[in-house]
Amino acid sequence: MIVHLNGWPGVGKLTVARLLAPRLQARLIDNHLLHDVAIRCAGIDDPARWPLYEAIRAAAYRVLAERPRAETFVMTNALCVGSPRECESWRQVVTLAETRAVPLVPVVLEADDVVLRSRVQRLERQGRKLTDPNALVEMIRCDRLLKPDVPERLDLDTTHLAAAAAVAAIEAHLLAVRGQLAPANARHLVLAP
Fold it and tell me: Full-prediction pTM beyond 0.90?
């Protein structure tokens, strides 16, 4: 199974994923794992960053595709419908799940804009994550989160939810949908309006 956490910067994807992965005995593949290599090698604003990131992702996903089907992954991204690059990233996640013939459970984390603006300014985000609240506001104003139109998707508001409570909600959801899960397929590429 792949549990995929998607949400705006500052929503708590990595915090939740770090708590969730051990609870599921899962491998954590967070978006920073792949992006950080490209950013460190090419620089955040260098055009070479994106081709390098795509090459790193392709290599990583080839290896992940060979992992035993019984192994669970928890993955994170900040994917929006208005970005072709981000839609392609989602397509790659779906392809990974299809190749492994495992279920893909999308979890969309959201929070109030005021809370998100406050969270992105935290010191621990400096140097590797978005920290500009105005850039975040513009992202939210201009786009919307990618939400696959599948019944196993969980939408979770983390505005007033501690990370441990978010993990408990995700675990409860996984338990509730377990009997309905089937291997990922093209239906995961259909997005909610």
Answer: yes
